[in-house]
Design a protein that fits this description.
Layout lengths: L1 H14 L7 E3 L9 E3 L5 E8 L13 H4 L2 H18 L7 E9 L10 H8 L13 E7 L9 E9 L3
Parallel strand pairs: 4-5
Antiparallel strand pairs: 1-2, 3-6, 4-6
C-alpha cells in the first residue's frame, strides 16, 4: 500500500509541469519592456506607492532640498522598494510592472525631470548587474502627499513559489 501511494505521488510530481519562465517583450536596448508575460503559477507581490525618505532633516519642510532632486528621490524610493521586496523573499529582478509618478521640478520650470528619474532608475534596472526590464509607465502629476516630494513609485513583482 505504501509503495502504491509513493508511486502515485512520484507519478503526479513527474506529470506536474515546471513553472514557465517570465517573458519580457521588446527591444533589448530599451530600459523597459513593452510587455511582460507572467505565466500561471507565480506568486504576485503588489507594492503600494512608495515616496522618498527625508535626506536633509535640516532643510525647510516641504522643499525639494528636504527630499533631494528627482534622481536622489528615485534612488531613495527604489531602495525602499528593494527592502520591501527582500522582506518578502523577492528582489528587484522580480519586478514585472512599475508605475512612476513625477511632480514637476521647480528648478526645471515645473517640468518633470525624466532624465533625473532615468539616472536613478538605471542604477537598479536594465544594467549589467541587474538586467531586468519591467514594463513601466511614467507620468507627471500635480502633487504628492507632501510638498517637496517629486517621486512616487509602485511595483508588482512575480516570484516562483518555493
Amino acid at each position: 500500500m505504501r509503495r502504491l501511494a509513493l508511486a502515485t505521488l512520484l507519478a503526479a510530481l513527474a506529470a506536474t509541469p515546471a513553472a514557465a519562465e517570465i517573458k519580457r517583450v521588446g527591444p533589448e536596448t530599451s530600459p523597459i519592456s513593452s510587455a511582460v508575460v507572467v505565466p500561471a503559477g507565480y506568486d504576485m507581490i503588489y507594492v503600494s506607492g512608495i515616496v522618498p525618505p527625508v535626506i536633509n532633516p535640516d532643510a525647510p519642510a516641504g522643499t525639494p532640498r528636504e527630499f533631494g532632486d528627482t534622481k536622489t528621490q528615485t534612488i531613495g524610493v527604489i531602495e525602499r522598494i528593494k527592502a520591501i521586496l527582500e522582506s518578502q523573499g523577492a528582489s528587484l529582478g522580480d519586478v514585472v510592472m512599475m508605475r512612476v509618478l513625477l511632480v514637476g521640478d521647480p528648478a526645471l520650470g515645473g517640468q518633470m525631470d525624466f532624465a533625473g528619474m532615468m539616472e536613478g532608475y538605471r542604477q537598479f534596472f536594465a544594467n549589467a548587474e541587474q538586467p531586468n526590464r519591467p514594463a513601466r509607465i511614467t507620468s507627471q502629476i500635480t502633487g504628492l502627499v507632501a510638498p517637496g516630494m517629486m517621486v512616487e513609485i509602485e511595483v508588482q513583482a512575480a516570484v516562483k513559489p518555493k
